[in-house]
Structure formats: structure tokens, C-alpha cells
Design a protein that fits this description.
The protein is an alpha+beta fold and 442 residues long. 46% of the residues lie in helices and 23% in strands. The radius of gyration is 24 Å and the shape is globular.
Length: 442
């Protein structure tokens, strides 16, 4: 009774403090806690997660904030449990309590139709996590599996195109046999679709209290899936893990657990006993000077192994800094035999000092048609960039067409550029399909 009375007093005192705050002040204060919860999740700080969940308790008594407070309390407990699965000495009973508490919070939050899909999908994930906790108890395991299916079905009806819902859906599909509508390929396809939706959603969620996570989590799931599928694609696994880490450089699980596992698998696959030098360093946090080398005018020679494309196409690559130096803008063009432009694309690179990451967009403006006549287009793609040793790595995605790009041998007067290409959403890749040799023009 003493513990219950203490909690009651804490919540009551918190509610008095809430009453003294303006609505906007309360929202800003809660948004700060939410940001710290997400940071603690990525950093694997389980002590902070339980503390921050408690700090949200007073906000559950505020009618305008209650559903979001319930959601993020559930999120903190859920992620505390997930991080616990990665710790050898974590108490299974404690993990179970966190997951049960998270489900309670999520189901309360789901009463708000604005976040019902997010809350119910998270409750489904927690239920399936509990089925793993009870994996040696058939009746309890089945109970939690069915409960997760019920919550998941509700979430899919409420948010069929919600990337966080699909993140959970893909996790379920992975363990369902192909003959029952699931399978590894279907799960990977679901993650890929969700990733595109997450990127489209980025920047459109105006309220910091609304769930908007998803892009790095989906990249992480793709990395894990490519590593663990029946026919592993370790290059795809590595690329997706690095892309996730480029967005969240402090992510403990990806940086300290997943990436080393993928590298070890690549080492075994190659029969090597040491990690290759080019792969020995982890992805480094991006910096605002990463693309300074590109500024100026370059003469390029372009080769694409795709049938029908002539070899050694000449071209130019011109990069300038604009908008007070914040935007690295470039124009890449290829020239035909008559000296006329047959291909033109531009890239906009902006470094976000707050998030410490690059926000990059490419648009293809002129592309050859099947008849060889250039067409004026507007084909947009999103890119993620990070440093890796002496190279710069870039992942480019535009629906099913994807590139894994490497800038190497970067010097004042030359650099090399190559790209692996996938035209099926990353399921298969053609290594080094495109190569560019660039030399600085006089």
C-alpha cells in the first residue's frame, strides 16, 4: 500500500504542476520528454526509459495530451523490453512486466482515433514479444500470438499505409509460412513499401507528440532480414545497416550488435579470418564538409554495363555552394557524339546541423527514351550519405530503382564514383554496374 500511495502522491503532485502550466508550455515540456525517450531507446539506456515513462505520468491526466502521453509511456516500456532482449543479464520477468505495461498504455492510447493505428500495432508487437518470452509454454505462447493478430488486424484497418503499422506487419509476415500468405520475401517487400511511405511522410508530421519514427527502424529491419533470410544478401544487409546508422549514429543495437554480426557473416562467407581493410571501420557520423571536394567543374568519363549504352561517354559535373553555402548543388550531364546533352540530372545536398545528417534529393531532368531521343523528365530520388574511412557512401532510392554509391580515391584533381544497381527494390543487385572517372577541369 505504501508504494501505491507514493505513486498516487507523485501523480497528484504532477497534476497540480500541470494545472499551473499553460497548454503550450505543457506541450513543449512533454515534447522534450518524448525526444529524450527516443534518444534513450537508440542508445539502449533502459534506466532512462523507465524514468522517462514515469515522468509522463502527470500528462495522462491532461485531456488534450493524455492519449499521446499513454502512447509514449507505452513506447518507452516497449523499447526498454526490446533493448533488454539484447542484454544477457536482463531479467525475463522484468521484460514481461514492461511489455504488459506497454500493452495497457497502448490500448488506452488507441481510444484516440488519431493515433489508434500506431497504438494498436505497437500493442500487437508487444504481444508477439510476449509470445517469445513464453516460448516454452505452448498455451501462453498461443494466447499472445492470437492477441497480437487481433491487435494487428485492428491496426491494419485503421492505418493500412502507416509505415509503423507496416513495420510490425512485416515482422509478423516473416514468421508466417508462404503457403499461409507470409514468408521472408513478402516481409522484405512490406518493409520496402513501408520505407517509401516513411520517407514520403518525413516532414509532414507537424505535431512532435505524434508518432513519426520509422525510416531508420525499417532500414534496420531490412538489414537484419537480408542477413537472416534463407539466401543471405550480406551486401544489402550492410548497406541498409549503414544507412540506418547514418540517420542515427548513436544507435547502440545497429552500431554495436547488428553491424558486427553482418561483418562476421561476410568474413565467413569470404573464408577470410580478418575483416577487409575497406570494411574495418564503422560508418562515421556525417559532417558539413563531406562534399566540399566536389565544388568546381569536372570532366567525366561514364560507363554503364547495361546493354545498349555506349562505353566511355563524355560529360561534365559542376558543383557550387548556394544559399550562403548551405546547399551543395550540382549538375551532371552526359554528351552525345554531336556534343549535345543526352542526360542531365541535378542534386541538392543540405547538411542538417541539428540532426547531424545529410538531406539529399536528386532529380533526373533529361533521360534518353527507347527511341534514343532525350525526354524532359522530373524523376526524383532520395539519398542518404555517410563517411566510411577514406570513402563516402551514398544510398539512393527511387521506388524500385536503387543505387549503392561509393566515392573513392578522392583527391584535389580527381575522384572515382561507382554504383551497384537494383531495379527490383533491392532484392537483387548488379555490382559496379555504373562507373565514373572524374578529373578536375582547368
Amino acid at each position: 500500500m505504501g508504494a501505491l500511495r507514493t505513486v498516487t502522491v507523485v501523480v497528484a503532485m504532477g497534476s497540480l504542476g500541470m494545472a499551473a502550466r499553460s497548454p503550450e508550455t505543457a506541450r513543449r515540456s512533454m515534447a522534450s520528454i518524448v525526444a529524450r525517450i527516443q534518444k534513450a531507446d537508440y542508445e539502449g539506456d533502459r534506466k532512462a526509459l523507465v524514468r522517462l515513462a514515469a515522468e509522463l505520468a502527470p500528462y495522462t491526466l491532461n485531456d488534450s495530451l493524455a492519449s499521446r502521453a499513454r502512447y509514449w509511456r507505452g513506447f518507452a516500456l516497449w523499447r526498454r523490453a526490446l533493448n533488454g532482449f539484447n542484454e544477457k543479464d536482463a531479467d525475463p520477468k522484468e521484460i514481461e512486466r514492461d511489455l504488459l505495461g506497454a500493452i495497457t498504455e497502448f490500448r488506452e492510447a488507441a481510444k484516440d482515433p488519431r493515433i489508434a493505428a500506431d497504438a494498436n500495432s505497437a500493442a500487437a508487437a508487444c504481444s508477439w514479444n510476449l509470445s517469445y518470452v513464453h516460448r516454452e509454454e505452448p498455451d501462453a505462447r498461443r494466447q499472445y500470438i492470437l492477441q497480437g493478430v487481433r491487435f494487428n488486424d485492428e491496426a491494419k484497418k485503421e492505418g493500412p499505409d502507416n509505415p509503423r503499422v507496416l513495420w510490425v506487419v512485416g515482422g509478423g509476415e516473416w514468421f508466417v509460412p508462404v503457403e499461409r500468405g507470409g514468408g521472408q520475401a513478402k516481409a522484405i517487400a512490406t518493409y520496402g513499401r513501408a520505407l517509401e511511405l516513411a520517407r514520403k511522410e518525413k516532414g509532414s508530421v507537424a505535431d512532435p507528440l505524434d508518432p513519426s519514427w520509422g525510416e531508420p527502424e525499417l532500414l534496420m529491419n531490412l538489414a537484419w532480414s537480408y542477413q537472416n533470410r534463407e539466401t543471405p544478401d550480406l551486401d544489402a544487409a550492410l548497406s541498409n545497416a549503414r544507412a540506418a546508422l547514418a540517420i542515427v549514429p548513436t544507435w547502440h543495437y545497429v552500431r554495436d550488435i547488428l553491424l558486427p554480426q553482418i561483418r562476421e557473416a561476410k568474413m565467413k562467407e569470404s573464408g577470410s579470418t580478418t575483416i577487409p581493410a575497406a570494411d574495418a571501420t564503422t560508418a562515421k557520423a556525417a559532417s558539413a564538409t563531406d562534399f566540399d571536394f566536389l565544388e568546381g567543374k569536372w570532366t567525366v568519363v561514364y560507363n554503364n554495363a547495361q546493354p545498349g549504352i555506349p562505353p566511355n561517354l563524355p560529360g561534365t559535373w559542376i558543383a557550387t555552394k548556394q544559399a550562403d553555402g548551405r546547399v551543395v548543388y550540382d549538375e551532371f550531364r552526359l554528351l552525345g557524339g554531336d556534343g549535345k546533352t543526352v542526360f542531365l540530372g541535378t542534386t541538392y545536398r543540405v547538411f542538417d546541423e541539428v540532426r547531424q545528417q545529410w538531406d539529399i534529393r536528386y532529380v533526373g531532368l533529361l533521360t534518353p527514351g527507347n527511341d534514343g531521343i532525350p525526354r524532359k523528365t522530373a524523376q526524383w530520388a532520395e539519398l542518404t550519405a555517410w563517411r566510411e574511412g577514406a570513402t563516402i557512401r551514398v544510398d539512393q532510392r527511387a521506388n524500385e530503382y536503387q543505387l549503392r554509391i561509393t566515392y573513392s580515391d578522392i583527391a584535389r584533381d580527381h575522384f572515382h564514383w561507382k554504383a551497384d544497381v537494383s531495379s527490383d527494390g533491392g532484392r537483387t543487385w548488379k555490382a559496379d554496374q555504373i562507373r565514373i572517372d572524374a578529373k578536375r577541369s582547368p
